[in-house]
Amino acid sequence: MATTSVLTPLKTRRDGIFSTRLAGGRAPMTPSPKTPRTQAVVPEPSESIHHGNANLISRFSRSVSKTNVRDSPKSNIATRPSRGSPRRVEQALSDYTLTGTAPRPSTASSAKNTPSRSRGSRAGSAHRTPKRTQSKVNYTAADRFIPNRNASEAITSTGAAVKLGENDHTPGRRPKSSASDGSAALAAGAASAFDFGRPQHTSSTSDAAASLSLEGLRLNDNNEDDEDEAPRSKASPNTVAYQQSVAEACGVSIKQRILAFKPAPPESSRPIDLRSQYNRPLKPAAASASQFRRRVLTAPERVLDAPGLVDDYYLNLLDWSSGNQVAIGLERNVYVWSAESGSVHSLLECPSDTYIASVKWSGDGAYVAAGLGTGEVQIWDVEEQTKLRSMHGHDTRVSVMGWNKHLLSTGARSGLVFNHDVRIAQHKVAELVSHTSEVCGLEWRADGAQLATGGNDNLVSIWDARQLTAPKFQKTNHKAAIKALAWCPWQSNLLATGGGSHDRHIHFWNTTSGARVNSIDTGSQVTSLRWSMGYKELVSSSGFPDNSLSIWSYPTLVKNIEIPAHESRVLHSALSPDGQMLATAAADESLKFWKVFEKKAGSGNLVGGGSGASAKAGLTKATTIR
Amino acid sequence: MPSAMPPPSSREDKSKTHKLALKGSSKTIVEFFDFACNTILFQRGVYPPEDFTTVKKYGLPMMTSCDDQVKAYIKKIMHQLSRWMQKSKISKLVIVITSKETGEHVERWQFDVNVFSDASKSKAASAGPADKENSAPAEEGATAEQKTDDVVQKEIQALFRQITGSVTFLPMLDGNCTFNVLVYADADSEVPLEWGDSDAKEVKNAEKVMLRSFSTNNHRIDTVVSYRLAE
């Protein structure tokens, strides 16, 4: 193998010899620029060598060490080991080299060194006698160990090694030779070494020089203990010639390199079982991908005029009953529009000095509560179109109300919330004190166990129905008034709350622990929130600047669609009893109906039946509006 | 695919026509690599199926990744590839699938690129102007008489059918794999920082199956898949 010969030159190069040959004044320690260019492929089938020298060398060294250096063709060339010097026992040498190099701190790997040395021993032995003269020179160069620092830093391994070996033989020689001489000799040696692999053009002298240097190395091996070894260990990068010879020896083209795209590929989001992939149904079933997102009708089913609708965010003027009737407060009147028949009638008209501030259907759809600007609350029987009673207590406008069976909760501008038992004369049964500013959002949980209120003081209060003296939780995360409140129909302790124009967020709360579980920045004032009963979605209505309806998936919080709904801000919304239709009233004085949660055939409601409105909703046939 | 360059006219000298033809052909090849890469990632379960969308190509529904990171990764590779291809620096493109757990290379898709010599191109100069309605790259016009784009597309289609069909004989992968792209480039190629020398990443104890080949007027692609034999 050419390898051994190749290696030797590396070391010589250290001495600075190479400079003459390769790069002139280049510092010895720096890798030669040429090396990276050429590549050789190792004969081993599975591995190819990339251009890095180190790889090549290590490969070779490995193979060499295993196989035993002897086999290399060069050894033959070098001639036989018959040599005068007793020291070189070739076997012993190789062993030494292996062991000796390892301990050395030097940069090059031990493996690299070994082959070179062994090879050196062979070659060296043959040429020995003639070299001696030259070898002296080498020693001088090697002097770096001892006194002679004048030799360039390059002195390093080979030179040193040679010298040491020589020292053993003839100590006296050193002084004679100059460092430069030594380097020259080494260089010649290196050249010859290269040539060994191929047909040689080198002169006999160079050969001799090479052999000398090699010998020197050899000697070193013997003297392992010496400091020499450290320098040896550095293997210098190969020359082009070297690589070519290697490549030729291996029968591989050096014209090609294998390149890998180094950045790691992105991680797969999950392990994939191909079996399920191959067996998947022809029609993608439940699809997570966006292309399978459900379609939402973006055109309103119907548009009604709502003249005189007060443009006031804090009021709650729209509600849809379980009996499929829509009540809306327009200035001083409450109108009831029957979705079944499409007929409309005025239910009540309040005194001219005030206005309707809120309307709310009772759970059974038989009664409408109307909150007035004066703080009075009236309860009307819709069938009979008669007022059942008036309840007083608030001295400011009642802007929000909520039914829980026979209990009516009313929130007023004062920040007070009263619970009224509408059946009894002393109707006020509880006073809920937490808000310091107008209460504009109020929602009972479907089972009546919890009540959520939101106010203009940016506060969300969550009350336990059994303990109304103080709120169970008070949430201050919103940065604006909270009008939009909605309880999740399929997870009873999940509450969604939406904030006003300075807040624009929807927060989701676990009302058992009080923790905020999710948030959405909607980018506009949230005026109302409604959960779907058929999909894991909720719809929010927006005020400035979007005036739109947005449908969000929960819990992914992905916005499925945004419908530009009105020309000015959407003030109120209400869901039909079957949960498919959404009514919205906006400051543009129109009332629009949207089929945003249209049921797919055969799909049931997420909520089997709760109390109040939803229970009844389950029973009603699909809502029709005329 | 949009044809970026005007079809060479018959008056153009041979050398120019050849350049254009080579460029167009390279484009076809790189595009093929792009789809092949996506198809393999999908078919071999390197990424989950929901990360892929279907596009029509070569008369087939082709799966391409819609994951931004994967897309960007492949795009980077293809960008460099097209540079090399136009200079005919590439002799092989290899996609190696590696098990994440053991680090073993379990599957290796090798596409050998053969560039035809100039001689075959001499005829090209005499070809008439290309059919402008045709979506094929410019090379097609010049060499229409040799091989129409339709024929090339058909060959590619057949190859993709074969790649897709290969899942029937390829061993099951455990679904926890990653992949690497190698190229065999000429030693004098310009190598950007992101590319580095590598070993061949051969599959140990592999069985090889030669798939179909296809050729454009300038290139021929041979496909070999090697995979680990079941123990």
UniProtKB/TrEMBL annotation, chain A:
> Repeat WD: residue ranges?
356-390, 432-464, 563-596
Q: Name one GO cellular component term.
A: anaphase-promoting complex
Tell me the domain of life.
Answer: Eukaryota
Residue ranges, compositional bias (Polar residues): 55-67, 94-115
What are the Low complexity biased-composition ranges? Answer: 116-127
Any one Gene Ontology MF annotation carried by this entry is: ubiquitin ligase activator activity
Please name the GO terms of the biological process aspect recorded for this protein, alphabetically.
anaphase-promoting complex-dependent catabolic process; cell division; positive regulation of anaphase-promoting complex-dependent catabolic process
Region Disordered: list its residue ranges.
Answer: 1-145, 159-184, 219-240
Q: Which residues form a coiled coil?
A: none
Q: Which InterPro entries match?
A: Cdc20/Fizzy, WD40/YVTN_repeat-like_dom_sf, WD40_CDC20-Fz, WD40_repeat_dom_sf, WD40_rpt
Q: What's the family? A: Belongs to the WD repeat CDC20/Fizzy family.
| This protein's name | CDC20/Fizzy WD40 domain-containing protein
UniProtKB/TrEMBL annotation, chain B:
> Which Pfam families does this one have?
HORMA (PF02301)
- Might you report a single GO cellular component term? mitotic checkpoint complex
The UniProt annotation puts the region (Disordered) at: 124-149
Highest taxon above the source species: Eukaryota
User: Per UniProt, which keywords does this protein have?
Assistant: Cell cycle, Cell division, Mitosis, Nucleus
Q: Name one GO biological process term.
A: cell division
HORMA domain: which residues?
A: 23-225
Where would you find this protein in the cell?
Answer: Nucleus
The UniProt similarity line reads:
Belongs to the MAD2 family.
Which PANTHER family has this protein been placed in?
Answer: MITOTIC SPINDLE ASSEMBLY CHECKPOINT PROTEIN MAD2, MITOTIC SPINDLE ASSEMBLY CHECKPOINT PROTEIN MAD2A
What is this protein called in UniProt? HORMA domain-containing protein
Q: Which organism encodes this protein?
A: Salinomyces thailandicus
